[in-house]
Amino acid sequence: MDLLGDGLEILKETSRTFYIPISRLPRVLQEAVASAYLCMRAIDEIEDHPELDNQTKAKLLRTISLTLQVAVDGFAIDSFSVGFGAHEKFLPEVSIRIREWALLAPETVAPRIWDATAAMADRMAYWAERNWEIHTEYDLDRYTFGVAGAVGLLLSDLWAWYDGTQTNRTHAVGFGRGLQAVNILRNHKEDLAREVSFFPDGWSAENMQVYARRNLVLAEAYTKNLAAGPALDFCQIPLSLAFGTLNAIANGKEKLSRSDVLALIEQINNVRK
Q1: How far apart are the first and last CA of the chain?
Q2: Residue scoring higher pLDDT (256 or 129)
């Protein structure tokens, strides 16, 4: 079975923002980044699951975290499924197959990916138990770090592992936070429908726009300081899509259309030539 190919197909179905840049990476780095994003998508789908109550989500996420923490050189065939129990039938494929995504990581960097996923699962469990109550910008900073800023730090570690690329880690956090803030803006109506809001008390969409753009300035600095190579190629696409999405929302659209996405990617390709 071609596990990487299988994983890329699932990424294509679940994350249009990251499928394209991941699919363009060199093979070994592609395996590492795909492993990380699939593992995180697996726990993200549990955090956002419409049919599971918050306590069940927290329990499943902590069980995944503990399973990842005990790994040495792999996982028993039933190491995750035992923890899922009767809830497994409610979970999407990307979550059920988290063991495979964890094993996709190259051996020399796999423990870093497992550690990052375990830590994120614990943070997601914390927020699920609190029904994602965001009252202040301090709360928002904690949440956006926990589920996205930390991903920026992981990516920096993966670039360094692959070819020694060094990055500004404060900017890396801004990269993750900025992308997450854009997602919060884009999904605000859907979140309200499930009685969750990531907007601090009294904030409007304009306030979240300011927050997102402030962090995307750091993301832009992060990207501009990257030398030509896989890390730069990867970061340009989600950054461009994030700015494009903010502009679309500011102009009254809910999100970028498929043609908008393709046009932005084409612009990036033309710059590379």
Answers
A1: 35
A2: 129
Long-range contacts of 261-264 (CB under 8 A, 24+ apart): 261/16, 264/237, 264/240
Is the per-residue pLDDT at 1 higher than 70?
no
- For residues 39 and 96, the answer to whether their CB atoms sit within 8 Å is no
273 exposed, middle or buried (CB, 10 Å; 0-12, 13-18, 19+)? exposed
What mean pLDDT value characterizes the chain?
94
Contacts of 255 (CB under 8 A, 6+ apart): 186, 245, 248, 249
Q: Pick from 184, 248, 173, 165: which is nearest to 217 by CA?
A: 173
> What separation in angstroms does the CA of 197 have from each of 48, 57, 129?
13, 18, 15
Cβ 46 vs Cβ 95: under 8 Å: yes
Residues 6+ apart with CB under 8 A from 157: 109, 112
**Chain center to CA of 267:** 24
